[in-house]
Amino acid sequence: MVSINDIIQREVNPFDLINTKVGNFWTDNSDAKMIVASIHQQQINEIEDILNLVTKDNHSRTILLIGDAGCGKSYLLGRLKKTFNPKAFFVYIGPWADNEYIWRHILRNTVDSLIHVPDGQQESQLMLWLKNLSAFTKINGGVWQGLLNDRQKFIKHLKKTYKTAGIYNAGMFFGVLHDLTNPELYDLACEWLRGDSISEESMQELKVKFCIDTEDAAKNILANFSKISLQTQPFVLCFDQVETTPNYDVNPLPLFNINTTIHNDNFQNFLIIITIIKDHWMRTRNSISQADKARIEKLVQLKSINLEQAEAIWNCILQPLHIQANPKPSTPTFPLDIKLLPVTFPGNKTYPRQTIILGRKEYQHYKERLILDGFAGNTERNGTSSPDEVEIVSQQELQEVVDKSHKIRPQAELEIIWQKELQKNQEEITKILLVSSVNFIEMLGVALQALKMKYVKTKLLTGSYSNQSLSFQSLHQGQVGIVCTEDLQLSKFYHIMNATHQVIQKGICQHIYLIRVSGVGNAKLKGYQIYSQIFDGNKNVHIYPDLASIHILQTYRNLVKSCESQELVIGGKTVRVPELENFVRTSKFLEECTILQKLGVVTKVKTDPIKPRVEPTVIRPSRTTKDLRPVKEFMLNLVKTQSFMSVPALYRYAREMFKHVTEEEIKHLINLLCEEKKIKFINPKEVFEKQLVCLVP
Predict the structure, then answer these.
(1) What is the per-residue pLDDT for 623?
(2) Rounded Cα distance, 315 and 334, in Å
């Protein structure tokens, strides 16, 4: 039998597992069992009613979803996706970097979302959409196979079916749809559809004449999706964190102009959901024209929850622990007292975030009191272990552990969130070219601001490539310019090099850096000739970006957006951008970014590698040494946030976070942390399942 108190002592605070930093719902792994059905159910019903209307008549509609910070807007998007994905194709559209790049951003995010495989399906949303087009649902399997085998027949069949729809560049578009059915061309076809720059050779493979590199082209390709989708499920386009888009509070019109265009240009079968913090909406609504407001079908407001719903949140979060306990706890919310709810929230109303913050605080307090009372030289240990199996620890020493943990916990929490966000980006961004040059410039700009570089400004270049450049003032280098381009078409590379040369001639910058991993052509090309003249490796330098740097910069950019939308909560407090900037400077995470090192704005941190455990009697074949430092840092930070936890739990969370790490390596890291006097065992003589560790005070 395992008592609930034993479980509480050993396990991580379950409220810490509720991630209050929300992002793309396709990367949200929230357990469906954690949903309290009654919360926001009325709003979900209202949204479903609108979705059903779109399904019925194919007319696009827009919902504006507003609410205070912490009311659950982004989480609701994830819940809608889980609930309604069987009847709609869901698209997540995060904040964009430049208002002159919105349509291309929407198209890129749309295709990125469509390539995800929904729960319970074997194929991506994109392939499910393609196979359910009316052009194919009315033919038999033999005809379908014949169309797959003959690209021209496939294109001709689609042209005939949708001849009145007014498809933009129908031959190219339908040809790329055919390429989606070819496993060898699928990835390349997705790259073209999302607006990536592809080489002339790749364009020949797809038989296309141009890439989608303008706002008008991106809008028209998105319109193509809508025009041939009347017989399929609707598309639900979820615009999240819109208040963090460029200058939204000053000028919200770009977003609502996009929405109006979708309606005026008769895009079909779209349900658009725009989420925004209520305060931002109230400040800017008078700046929005009546014509744009008229294109909003319904305003849905997320309101506060009652105390019964707050109690239900506690029940859901604590239930996994209660299931393991024998005997069962006396109340569904044990160790939390529901009497705290009306005392803390005297108006009998609260928000999900506030409920979770209160639960986390009270749970941690109970756990710490349990440890203090059970291990401080006490002979009555609530059934945890016998006296001779416990290292006698003074009440003062345990209290020092608690006090130290409270002091360093916020930094440790942020470091864990950083590691999780970094790992997510490592899994999602597998190629440098998956990040657009416009987004890269934004990522680099916010990182430079965090490092206290002065006068960070985008659009150093003039013309259509301006949003692929920035400048800043460096203490040691003077005015520095950065140009980022991954255009694979060398004719466009020439234009960017020419614009860069004009900046140099005007004497605007003392140093210019080009960030580009793609080729630069050969000596016969004008673009290469200008490139060779500019980037001689002395004053102006060509930096070849690495994937690890992209992951670091994207991680920081995502956290900045979460701060701006008031979604990043640490220690019960909403983190602001200045606090996040101070964190990254203190943690030195950005100093691991090779690109920033080559720009001369950070110095690489020297760290000693973790030595492997010595086993002289065992001979193993040589293999690449793993970098175990992130695992070690994660484990230490986890102990910092918990004050006390069991060794098995430490093993489990380390393995979940770093699936490539073995149990032997984790054991080695725990021993290292003990040798370095960063953590210690409270009861080292206990059986493994009951061993507890804590910080060294």
Answers:
(1) 46
(2) 9
User: Would you report the helix, strand and coil content of the chain in percent, each value rounded to 5?
Assistant: 55, 10, 35
Distance CA 442, CA 445 (A): 5
Domain ranges of the chain: 37-88+233-243+254-304, 122-232, 315-423, 432-548, 629-695
Percent of the chain with pLDDT over 90: 77
Contact present, 575 and 427 (Cβ < 8 Å)? no
> Strands 692-695 and 644-646, how do they pair?
antiparallel
Helical H segments across 487-625, by residue range: 490-505, 526-534, 547-564, 577-587, 594-598
pLDDT at 596 over 60: yes
pLDDT tens figures, 333-387: 999 999 999 999 999 999 999 999 999 999 999 999 998 887 755 433 433 444 4
Region for 524 from its dihedrals, namely left if φ exceeds 0, alpha if ψ lies in -120 to 50, beta otherwise: alpha
Helices (H) and strands (E) counted in the chain, each on its own, are 28, 17
Pick the CATH number of 629-695 from 1.10.10.10, 3.40.630.30, 1.20.1330.10, 3.30.450.20: 1.10.10.10
Provide the 10 A C-beta neighbour count for residue 454. 11
Looking at residue 612, its pLDDT comes to: 54
> In this structure, are residues 628 and 665 in contact, taking their beta carbons and an 8 Å threshold?
yes
Q: Give the pair of three-digit tokens for residue 335.
A: 């160790």
Half-sphere exposure of 611 (CA within 13 A, CB side): 5
In angstroms, the first-to-last Cα distance of the chain is 32
Give DSSP secondary structure letters for 458-520: E--S-STTGGGEEEEEETTTEEEEEEE-----HHHHHHHHHHHHHHHHTT--SEEEEE--S--
The H or E element that residue 573 is part of is: strand 573-574
For β-strands 469-474 and 478-484, DSSP reports them as: antiparallel
Same topology, domains 37-88+233-243+254-304 and 432-548? Answer is no
Contact 655, 661 (CB under 8 A): yes
* Of 441, 502, 432, 445, the residue nearest 468 (C-alpha): 441
- pLDDT at res. 614: 42
Question: Which one is the CATH code of 432-548: 3.30.420, 3.40.1560, 3.30.1360, 1.20.120?
Answer: 3.40.1560
Q: For residue 510, what are the contacts with CB-CB under 8 A and spacing of at least 6? A: 477, 478, 479, 480, 539
Mean pLDDT of the chain: 90
Residue 616 in this model has a pLDDT that exceeds 60: no
CATH of domain 37-88+233-243+254-304: 3.40.50.300
- Rounded Cα–Cα distance for residues 394 and 408 (Å): 22
| Separation CA 600–CA 513 (nearest Å) | 11
Sign of the C-alpha dihedral computed for residues 498, 502, 503 and 504 taken in this order? positive
Count of C-beta atoms within a 10 Å radius of residue 153: 14
pLDDT 10s digits, 47-82: 999 999 999 999 999 999 999 998 988 889 988 998
Instruction: Give 631-640 pLDDT, tens digit per residue.
Output: 999 999 999 9
- The stretch 483-487 carries a mean pLDDT of 94
pLDDT digits (tens, 9 = 90+) for 507-544: 999 999 999 999 999 999 999 999 999 997 778 999 99
